[in-house]
Amino acid sequence: MTMNTLPETSSATPLDVRIVLVAITKHGAQQTADLARRLPQASVCVADKFAPLMAGLPNPVRAYSGAFRDEIATLFADFDQVVFFVSLGAVVRLIAPHLKSKDEDPGVVVVDDAAQFVIPVLSGHVGGANAMAEQLAAMLSATAVLTTASDVGKTIPVDILGRELGWKVEAPKINITRVSAHVVNGEPIAVVQETGSPNWWTRSTPLPGSIHKFERFEDVDLNRFKAVLWITHAEITPERWQQLSERLVVYRPPQEVEA
Fold first, then answer.
1. pLDDT tens, residue order, the chain (259 aa)
2. Would you tell me how many other CB atoms lie within 10 Å of the CB of residue 102?
3. Model confidence over 76-87: pLDDT tens digits?
4. pLDDT tens digits, residue range 227-237?
């Protein structure tokens, strides 16, 4: 493998992530070059024979020789978002041996050959692939094909609620899984917000009717709700976690932004 390593740029997308645009065919490389001009902070990865198509771009260019499958481990290690101008089926086969977990894997996005559809394939929420796909779709005048239930259903993404506001999620993984299921199934959910920015609902659609907002935990009738999303700085006692079992997810806004 040969690779040209260029300095990273200081520019950042709204997600402040390390992005690489990947192509393995001449047409894909041409599409990559077109998109790279609009994303000067992104790196580009192409076969060395297509590297001349990247001439004049401000982007870092990673040129490889040999089998492309040998590049995947490096791309997964070096980048937060991997955008493939490669067929979806090929991408699935290429990345399969390298998958670990949604907490570790980068976001993976596929753009079809005609640049009509942008498909988040891996790590849609935690890895940011859904947001990346929507951003790229807007740039390409394409359609983002989102399949995660909370996005399709226009409801709360439990695992990343408030992330753009600096909130940290605090809960066992099983809680996030169970509560996410309750949310996407439209079951009654209590959102208790004691602190943090109130501007956490950013979708253009109204908050679903199954989501009920409270200012104090004490006001929640726990028998009425399948789960509780608690936005607080308060200490959650072991007894409270045990009481709510797998029904509780806690969010911690940054202390320094409080009024």
1. 333 322 233 333 444 689 999 999 999 999 999 999 999 999 999 999 999 999 999 999 999 999 999 999 999 999 999 999 999 999 999 999 999 987 889 999 999 988 899 999 987 777 788 889 889 999 999 998 887 655 655 688 888 898 888 999 999 999 999 999 999 899 999 999 999 999 999 887 899 999 999 999 999 999 999 999 999 999 999 999 999 999 999 999 998 644 4
2. 15
3. 999 999 999 999
4. 999 999 999 99
Residue 139 CB contacts under 8 Å (≥ 6 apart), including other chains: 35, 38, 39
Give DSSP secondary structure letters for the chain.
------PPPS---TT---EEEEESSHHHHHHHHHHHHH-TTSEEEEEGGGGGGGTT-SS-EEEE-S-GGGGHHHHHHH-SEEEEES-HHHHHHHHGGG---TTTSPEEEEE-TTS-EEEEEE-SSTT-HHHHHHHHHHHHT-EE----HHHHTT---GGGTTGGGT-EEES-HHHHHHHHHHHHTT--EEEEESSS-STT--SSSPPPTTEEEES-GGG--TTT-SEEEEE-SS---HHHHHHHTTSEEEEE--GGG--
Angle at 63 (CA atoms; ends 129, 19), nearest 5 degrees? 20
